[in-house]
Amino acid sequence: MAQAEDTVQPLLQQFQQLFFISKIAGILPQDLEKFRSRNLLEKSRNGMIYMLCTLILYVVLYNILIYSFGEEDRTLKASQSTLTFVIGLFLTYIGLIMMASDQLAALRNQGRVGGLYERIRLVDERLYKEGCLMDNSTIGRRIRIMLIMTVIFELSILVATYVKLVDYSQWMSVLWIVSAIPTFINTLDKIWFAVSLYALKERFEAINANLEELVDTHEKHKLWLRGDQEVPPPLDSSQPPQYDSNLEYLYKELGGLDIGSIGKSSVSGSGINKVAPVAHSMNSFGEAIDAASRKPPPPPLASNMVHESELGNAAKVEEKLNNLCQVHDEICEIGKALNELWSYPILSLMAYGFLIFTAQLYFLYCATQYQSIPSLFRSAKNPFITVIVLSYTSGKCVYLIYLSWKTSQASKRTGISLHKCGVVADDNLLYEIVNHLSLKLLNHSVDFSACGFFTLDMETLYGVSGGITSYLIILIQFNLAAQQAKEAIQTFNSLNDTAGLVGAATDMDNISSTMHDFVSTTMTPVG
């Protein structure tokens, strides 16, 4: 056990950079000193207070940002349809709600996250005993790549929007930096989930690779057994070679030899017309072959190669298969616990991604029609910035869905690899072991979901894509109807104004005619 602990690296050792950045940003409440010294995630009262203070600070700054840039929003309801105003008002706070759900979930789960990574470490030790050494260096590289991509996307969106669409001549424009805080915090939180999920997928694949190695080794073993029966025995130099009587003419052509004399000389042991040296020292062209240039005979196969296949001994391999299935069950339980810890943040992210993706495209359409849009969605005025925003938002959602689906597939593929062991061994006892363990694996599969509302797989991704398209078309149709209704009202009002002016002019003409008649009648003398 001590040797396994020294050889297996803790997974949290690769989270050093991510932990420090998350701690400064106020995402994790765990104790900093214990993580730095022992790579443990433990509760911290000071960390909890700091996290609550950062949450309150972010909420206050975000509301100041909305108030400072809300001049356009105050005129939006009067200039545009009520639908656009309501959508903008709701989606203005959806990012803040997503950030708050991430931080509150971290506070609720601060005592359980450390135990989760401790269970992963114990799984690594058990895998090491079965010959699977996990290389966690790929986890560290993946974390660094994700952090770099997060910084690039956040800075690209923030700087491009600030330079092109914000009036930076006013000092209040500095508050625009606050608009990037919710998405940045959400991305850091999801990096923890994504990397932990990737680590579980690697451990499923390590079990599958171990089973596949058993199958490959046994197949090579069976090929060797068949080859041992088919390969002719090696030539013995003390015994004369055997000749085929059907090739008598060939011996005569090559050396002028008589097959009968060869047989007699072989029996008598005389060296006259002995063909064996010619066969070993002459090539097919009759040229001599030097002893130094001869190829050495292939090394004989090891006599213990028969015992190198573990599947050949069902009683011995039963313990190994049982251990692998128990480790598989433990990884599945860890996956379920991981999904439970991040269930609410994942649900908020998927809702945010669906709404923001639809709204960003809808506001892009409004901008092309020279309509006013909410102030915090002014990035939709520029198609290039819109592409970056959509790529960043959809990339997080799609990657988590894809990784969850691949991890679930890797857990289910273990049963297939296990059945391959039974098929290639072709042993009744091993068949019974495989069937028994397959029933266990059938209940060990893990599926990831968002609070049970939907499963994170490719089918869900397809449904979300169709939903975004449908709702976008509906919003555009409502917008067209609202604009047509507004134009109709404006046309009606203008016609009423015109009709009122015409009526007023007609009344003035009637009054003028009446006055003229009255004056004419009054001033005319009576004859």
UniProtKB/TrEMBL annotation:
Q: Which GO terms describe its cellular component?
A: axon; dendrite; neuronal cell body; plasma membrane
Q: What does the entry give for GO biological process? A: chemosensory behavior; detection of chemical stimulus involved in sensory perception of bitter taste; male courtship behavior; response to caffeine; response to insecticide; response to L-canavanine; signal transduction
What compartments host this protein? Cell membrane
Q: Give yes or no: UniProt keyword Transmembrane helix.
A: yes
Q: Where this protein primarily resides, as one coarse class?
A: membrane
Q: Does the keyword Cell membrane apply?
A: yes
Alphabetically sorted, this entry's keywords are: Cell membrane, Membrane, Receptor, Transducer, Transmembrane, Transmembrane helix
Pfam (any one): 7tm_7
Q: How does it sit in the membrane?
A: Multi-pass membrane protein
Instruction: Output one GO MF annotation.
Output: ionotropic taste receptor activity
Q: Which residues cross the membrane?
A: 48-70, 82-100, 143-163, 175-200, 344-364, 384-403
The UniProt entry's sequence similarity note says: Belongs to the insect chemoreceptor superfamily. Gustatory receptor (GR) family.
Stated role:
Gustatory receptor which mediates acceptance or avoidance behavior, depending on its substrates.
Q: Know the name of this protein?
A: Gustatory receptor
State the species of origin.
Drosophila yakuba (Fruit fly)
The organism's taxonomic lineage, starting at the top? Eukaryota, Metazoa, Ecdysozoa, Arthropoda, Hexapoda
